[in-house]
Each structure stands twice: as C-alpha cells, then as structure tokens.
Amino acid sequence: MESMQTLPSLTGLPLLAIVLVVLWSLVWKGFALWRAAELRQKWWFIALLIVNTLGLLEIIYLFFVARRYTVLMEVIEEK
Length: 79
What we know:
Layout: H1 2-11, H2 15-38, H3 42-50, H4 56-65
C-alpha cells in the first residue's frame, strides 16, 4: 500500500487525478489503435502505440486523419 502513495508524492498530484489521466489516455489510445488496425495503417498504429500525449495524438488521428478513410469489406462468396 505504501507504493500507492509514492506516485502522488513524486508528482504532487492526488491519486484520483493520476488515475483519471491514465484512464483518459487509455480510452483514447484504445479507440485510435482499433481504428488504425481496422484501416490497416501500420505506421499510425506504431506511432500511436509508442507516443504518449495524454490522448492528443489519438484525438487528432481519430477526428482529422482516420475520418478521411473508409474500411473496404471484402465479401467472399462460397461457390
């Protein structure tokens, strides 16, 4: 339990604020990674996976980059 108090004392932020920031980043990163994988955009996927910007890069990707692309679904008919 002592380790739970170490991070807030190092950052000067309350534990709740740290948890909210982590959750915020995780949600946006998940959506952006999902979309990049769906669009088969390997370089965006790698960049989003590595770069942590509190969701800013993910939001830019989702609302300005990925919006311009569509997913082409391949229909395979059995013969």
